[in-house]
Amino acid sequence: MKVAGIVLAAGRSTRMRENKLLLRIDGETLVRRAARAARDGGLDPVLVVLGHEAGRVGAELGGLGCVAVVNPRHALGLNASLDAGVAAVPADADAAVVLLADMPLVTAAMIRTLVARGREAGAAIVASRYGADVAPPALYARAVFEELRGGEGEGRGREVLRRRAGEVAWVDWPATALADVDVPADLERARRGGGPA
Fold first, then answer.
1. How far, rounded to the nearest angstrom, does the alpha carbon of residue 175 sit from its chain's CA centroid?
2. Which of 44, 69, 94, 153 could hold 77 in an S-S bridge, CB 3.0 to 4.6 Å?
3. 3-191: which CATH topology?
């Protein structure tokens, strides 16, 4: 099973008031950390969807062998970037793992576990659960790709999960592994290894 990676890294970071994807944890920018986790997790190709400050963010990917996908519609929201990423998945990929570049505690080992679960379960979707919270990364089989396409705003992935609830295999992670960096306090929490707000 060939699995591509889609790293969503196009947002404007409005709540952070600076481009959060260029902020660092352990000396590495968030975007590079996410792309490296995807690559080291065995995803191929790794497609990084860029938008806001695409040049600056894309410059962080040097030497990783990622494919930059610039989304001119990024201001329309996460769904537009998901659409651009899914459209760029090569025809020979059987599935894709979608990751958010602002979730710095997602590791290569987590991605490998997700893909292994997909192989073992043969499920249309393999989703991540952090205690009671559902969040990326998630694996989507090619049969689901069209449902991830189109639209504006956010939440397409969650909609597809709800619609196909009977076809979802789950991987459970500790709640402490969930970190979504939106404001400065989130970054400090992630630097400490995550945990509740």
1. 18
2. 153
3. Spore Coat Polysaccharide Biosynthesis Protein SpsA; Chain A (3.90.550)
